[in-house]
Amino acid sequence: MLNISLVPSCGAAGSPSACAASPTAGPRPWPWPHGGAPTINGSVALGDIRAVVHTQAPGAIEAYYQEVGRAGRDGDPAYGLLLSGTSDYGFRRRLLELSVAEREASGGMSDEHLMDWQWKLFLELMRYVEAGSCRHDYILRYFGDEQEMLGGC
Description:
The chain is 39% helix and 5% strand.
């Protein structure tokens, strides 16, 4: 398990936007949501990103593609690493079930179709991760862009 403590330089609000708006403010503990372990997020606005590391699989290919695409925007070589395992399936399923339970507990409607759709998006991501073929071609096919396919890397 990756557990990293971050203490950004932030303004009074303690948010990323406050950090960017007030770079001279002193260090301030970040109010991590839900008391969980913090995550590291990068932005080109905060410097050149050389690597994006996922210690667990995101919820969908779209999320992964958007997040890993932050590395190398300056044109220099960059790397993406996604660590995954069979426990990701149970973890993601549990997150989706908790989301439905929270909506029901707050008086909202339970939407099993939404959960099923999100589960299918996650399974598609895992097929991408476990693909024995060229991942470049896989993701282009997924997004419907077959113009730049490499034909098997």
